[in-house]
Amino acid sequence: MNRRDLLRAAALAPLAHTTLTRAAFAQGYPSRNITMIVPFPAGGQADLAARPVAMALERILGKSVIVDNRAGGAGGSVGNAAAARAEPDGHTLLMTLSSLAVLPEADRLFNRPVAYEVSQFTPIARVLADPTLLAVLASAPWKTVQDFVDDAKQRPGQITYGSSGPYGTLHVAMEMFAVSADIKLLHVPFRGAGPALTAILGGTVQAIAAAPGTLKPQVDDGKLRVLANWGAQRIASFPDIPTLQELGYKDVEMYIWAGLFGQSALPAPIVGRLREAMGQVMKSPDVLKTFEASGSLVAYQDAPEFSQFVAADSARLIAAVRKIGRVE
Prior knowledge:
By secondary structure, the chain is an alpha/beta fold. The protein has helices at 3-27, 45-61, 77-85, 99-109, 145-154, 169-181, 193-201, 212-220, 268-281, 285-294, 303-324; strands at residues 34-38, 65-69, 92-97, 121-131, 133-137, 160-163, 186-189, 207-210, 224-229, 255-263, 298-302. The strands form two sheets. The chain has a six-stranded mixed sheet, with helices on both faces. Strands 7-6-8-5-9 form a five-stranded mixed sheet. It is globular and about 65 Å long. Keywords: Signal.
């Protein structure tokens, strides 16, 4: 071997060592318990998605999968950022919502330091993708969206609504609707959809945007009334509820999708193992039954399709945030 070949071999040695190390590591994955960060309190869409998925992953991967609710507020930004900073070894995953792309844009809108970027994550699987629903107390005077809009125009800024935090999924949905309806509502942020739901049930706020799985038990118990859905079509769990597009709000569309992510530097063999496992999870009868009972049907996408979906949905939501502008 001549000097040039020796130098080339020496230069390639670290890369070969890293590749072999990653491959060997992935072969033994997981080597310990897995933490699945949910950047919201219990009771919301991300938590609803995480718990049955974590239980099924435990059976498939042979290690405990611990759901870690990081209820730090900021619309989920705190938990998303924690997952982005975690070691990319597959032992810290993130189950998050469509606000993943919105929150960095909100930081830029307010000239704040950006907590994380979407580019720090790799999509693994989409789990749920429900349209947002507009709900009020069953005792509220509004029977229709038109009732709600007419009252809001008579009393600008006096009708309160709860959300999972500034520029979180539920906040953006309500402001998107408010802009289209030319009304002014009063935003009351909470640390997640669960606390926002508790607030409306207790009369602290008067309206809420939330996922079907979050609202269905309360509607079935006669505590809440759903007025409209932000989707492109009606849904099976609320077949009599019109879409906002049906009612004339053509530019209003919002989905609360929940998906599993790893870090962008996650080795390809580990991503492949997680994709394979999630393919099995999303066919599990127990998982399907749990989601069906909650009113949220499975909307599984594997990583390639999910990556395309995230890119397209993120672009649409970022455009909506820019149109909404700076709101509190």
